[in-house]
Specification:
The chain is an alpha/beta fold and 430 residues long. The chain has 16 helices and 16 strands. The strands form four sheets. Strands 3-4-2-1-5-6-7 form a seven-stranded parallel β-sheet, sandwiched between helices.
Length: 430
């Protein structure tokens, strides 16, 4: 990562910044705008799109940009970019199409909308940076396929747990350690949380209750670990992952004791998580090394006695690090994290309560379903419904609480790009 600062300093000194358009001005979007405007060298946030234009204006103003220009056409946006005038719009397609925009950062967390933005940007030769693990965990492989064909990069972001894990994974592989478990540290998981139970917390932090619910009910970590599995070739040990709970503050260095050794050493490795360990909200990897002398050195360096050694990153800084992903994509054609090929792990919709015919699923972080990781071969064999595609699906036959939902249980809505892309993904990678 250190090389990035030199590359961005050079761009800044040459007056040749990476020009970025951002789609979404919610909690994370506002934070990212602040970071890009006030701290990111060699990167210029040239435009923000949001369906409510006043929120895009507010994001710029909160970052110290007093009077961004409101635009409604591609020509007007391109002229604003040429003049160095920050612009806002309610039409996200303008950012995806405009000359002078090098990369589009998608910050909504919505699968259908994000798929449309991603495909539009890829189709116009833009790099796509996703603060949207929900989209990557559902449609990442097919987006990567289209991006490769277009000669652009699609990537999730540094600072979020999947890329923090992938950076650590690449480091370990580079020094000769074989990662066998990629883990996430959580403080809470309750699959029955709803927007009603999370409203107070969401209001306290100025966030959306649905987004907060997706963290609490386990859907978000399922998407994050699906992204990691698809990038590394790992699987889940069982539906929903193992997810041990340990006494609060238990050092993560003890992680080798929480997972079955034979599961880790005998296959491609697994993605998983732990509840209660410290330091939260960090990530960790259990790795092994075959050479007995090198294993001895790891023990000498206080990395445990083996055969599993625990490596961890104690923090993730979300929007602070996104600038690194932008630089990696545009300057070095490198993804912080992206699927290696086809999907290996996906996130299945699971009933939060008994579902009856006529119910309409309300998607990720809603009242009716939560997400669980499942291996793709099981998803295909049992025709399971990805929760990322569940919103708007009408229940056709009863599904008991905690049972997974299949395509045969629902009538999906018509005309969704996300559903079409998923069908293409299944066909391409079967």
């Amino acid at each position: 990562m250190i090389i990035l600062d030199c590359a961005m300093e050079r761009r800044a000194s040459e007056g040749n910044p990476i020009r970025v358009g951002m789609v979404g001005a919610g909690y994370m979007g506002r934070a990212l705008a602040l970071q890009l405007v006030t701290a990111a060298r060699g990167i210029e946030l040239v435009a923000i799109a949001n369906r409510h234009g006043e929120r895009a204006l507010q994001a710029y103003q909160d970052a110290g940009v007093a009077e961004p220009l409101e635009v409604e056409t591609q020509a007007a946006l391109e002229e604003a970019v040429r003049r160095g005038r920050p612009a806002v719009t309610e039409d996200e397609t303008l950012l995806c199409r405009a000359e002078g925009v090098d990369a589009v950062v998608e910050v909504t967390g919505d699968v259908e909308f994000g798929a449309r933005v991603g495909m539009e940007a890829i189709g116009h030769g833009k790099h796509v940076i996703l603060m949207n693990a929900e989209l990557d965990g559902t449609l990442g492989p097919i987006l990567k396929h289209h991006a490769d064909r277009a000669g652009v990069v699609v990537t999730d972001v540094d600072g979020d747990q999947p890329a923090v894990l992938m950076n650590l994974y690449r480091f370990l592989v580079g020094i000769g350690v074989r990662p066998v478990l990629c883990g996430n540290i959580k403080g809470l998981q309750d699959p029955y949380r709803t927007p009603a139970t999370q409203e107070s917390f969401a209001r306290q932090w100025g966030q959306d209750a649905v987004k907060v619910t997706s963290f609490a009910d386990g859907s978000k970590i399922s998407f994050e670990q699906a992204c990691v599995a698809n990038a590394t070739g790992m699987r889940v040990a069982r539906r929903g992952m193992l997810g041990p709970t340990v006494p609060p503050g238990t050092p993560v260095e003890q992680a080798a004791d929480w997972y079955p050794l034979e599961e880790l050493l005998g296959g491609p490795g697994i993605v998983d998580y732990v509840i209660g360990a410290s330091p939260a909200p960090g990530v960790f990897i259990l790795g092994t090394i075959d050479h007995p002398v090198q294993q001895g050195y790891l023990t000498y360096y206080k990395m445990g006695d083996g055969p599993l050694h625990c490596f961890h990153t104690p923090f993730h800084l979300c929007h602070f690090e996104v600038q690194n992903s932008i630089a990696r994509a545009v300057e070095f054609a490198d993804a912080a994290i992206a699927p290696a090929a086809g999907p290996l792990v996906e996130v299945v919709a699971t009933a939060k309560r008994d579902l009856e015919p006529g119910d309409t699923l309300d998607g990720i972080g809603g009242y009716l379903a939560y997400g669980q990781c499942e291996n793709t071969e099981v998803m295909r064999a049992e025709r399971l419904l990805p929760i990322g595609l569940s919103e708007g699906c009408k229940i056709q036959r009863a599904v008991a609480r905690d049972r997974v939902v299949s395509w045969d249980d629902v009538e999906p809505p018509a005309g969704r790009m996300s559903h079409r892309l998923y069908e293409e993904q299944v066909e391409l990678f079967t």
